[in-house]
Amino acid sequence: MPEPTDSTDQPDMPRPRYFTTPIYYVNDRPHIGHCYTTLVADVAARAARLIDGPKADVFFLTGTDEHAEKVVTSAAEHGMPPIEWADLNAQRFKDAFAFMGFSHDDFIRTTEDRHKTRAAALIADLMDKGAIELGDYEGWYDPSQEEYLTETVAKENDFKSPVTGRPLEKRTEQNYFFDLPAHEDWLRAQIESDAIRILPEARKNEVLGRIKQGLNRVPVSRRIKDDDPAPEGWGVTMPGDPEHRVYVWIEALCNYITAIDTPERAHYWPNSSGGDPLQPGGAGQSQVTHFMAKDIIWFHAVIWPAMLHAMGRPAPSTVYAHAYWIAEGQKMSKSLGNFIEIDQLRAYADKFSLDAVRWYLMTQGPLGATDSDFAHSRFVEVYNADLANGIGNSTSRVSNMIDKYFGGRVANFDPSVPVEIETEHAFVEVELTNHPTHFAQWVRESVEGCDNCNLASSLRLGITIVERVDQFISDTRPFSIAKKREGDARIESQLAMILFYSAEMLRIASLFLYPAMPEKMADLWRRWNCDHLNDPADHNSGFKAPLAELAQFGDGGYSLKPGQKITKGDALFMRADPKEDPPSA
Ligand code: ME8
Fold first, then answer.
1. Which DSSP letter does residue 388 get?
2. Which atom of ligand 1 is nearest to the CA of 37?
3. What is the pTM of this model?
4. Domain map of the chain by residue range?
5. Which residues' Cβ are closer than 6 Å to ligand 1?
6. For the structural domain made of 17-322, what CATH number should be given?
7. 341 with 332: CB under 8 angstroms?
8. In CATH terms, is domain 359-550 a member of 1.20.200.10?
9. Which tens digit of pLDDT belongs to each residue from 555-566?
């Protein structure tokens, strides 16, 4: 791997951040679960680019895992060679991710040469270091998940797969093994001290509990059978032993390194020299966050860090495992045929907008430790409350008043004239004098939320601000003051100030909402002539300043300015009728 560039030499540079999703099996087409994890990573990546501004150094990777046995089996069922079936499904994933508006920097497929050659080199490195050896193995194999389980876990689950409930198989193999038990103490120390942060907290405790039950050697290879269903050259052969193929999980985990093994990208993996890269904030090194669901946390929080440790490389900083989308209380599965399909998400996006779908998934989804049901009635409720009656209505209302009372331009006001509203005098004074502290605090909360992957609460800050604006408007009643302003400069100035204050609050709210709703917020910025993006027509064009600067209230930098044109237009989100049937795919 090339030497990473040392970002510690440039103290004003934000630290590099690397976000990954699992690479998904291409035995079938994608569904809501795959889109969800990738959306979570997209929101995290967009939030990081916004927080860090034009110097942001973010890399967001997703992709597909193609050498699994189940890909070969399902290809045969469809009468296709595995690579054709993989090509077709990988394309379906790419199309789904394009539809969802994801901003990944790369999409890796494990059948690509760049992955296969580098994965083989990583395995060879582990062999050279004595971390992988040949041995006999007898164990409980879960064919539906392609993994071996310990005797204890197999027993606990009545010799059925803890994930799919299908029967386990007793298998004996001569394999190469990775010596996982050698890393037990190190792993426990890293996880307990949060050097490797496992989030949410409940997942950390589960992982530590399972480590305490004892670690087994991990099979790294499979002997290639004479009647092997996979074609020749499928997968990665064991370095130095062409009779064995690298076990799909071990090979797949390597993608997080193989994708960034170029001189420009190498710094996205923290290097092992200089500072303590395992400590948050240590040595300005890259922060690596792996996102996934709880089904595959063991591989990411235990096996993968141990492999890296054996290679002498730093471990990922954060392993975030969310819960599941379920349908009527049951896990979605192929056998139950109860997946929320991409076409269904498309139907929702056609009716309510893509950003509304992203918003619903992000704020109502299983980001924490609890599973979530996709429910149409809840979708409409949240859509109306947060979007149509929330940010949508508030921005229309304020644009319309600016249009009506000030010809569609932010009006000048005399800041020395206090806003004196008869009914709510005290509230207004407090709000107007305290706003700079509020915004600095919200920016801090948002940054903290993103660091802890509390993305839903960071996004909700945007709605909290919208609610404050609504309250402020109903307290100050600009529509009534407007009736009395004729020939009264003092009232005129108050009206201008109330509308400036409301619009400026909404501008800042839109920044917090942006990571989930990039298109709608970029649309608002175009209408309001806000110059947050380098190219206002392209919501992917990068921010002109870090969030803390963009979110400065009324400072004349990126804030709204007197004379700025505010174009009123169609509502950002049309109200939905809860009595209407769900959109059908
Ligand atoms: O495990 N709810 O691939 P996979 C939420 N190739 N997320 C879900 C979900 C649901 N109901 N169903 C799936 C693999 N997911 C391996 C990974 S990584 C080196 C190799 C998401 O296609 C979630 O992210 O089975 C879960 O972890 C992943 O899809 C499993 O994808």
1. I
2. 24
3. 0.92
4. 17-322, 359-550
5. 22-25, 33-34, 36-37, 65, 252-253, 292-293, 295-296, 324-325, 332
6. 3.40.50.620
7. no
8. no
9. 889 999 999 999
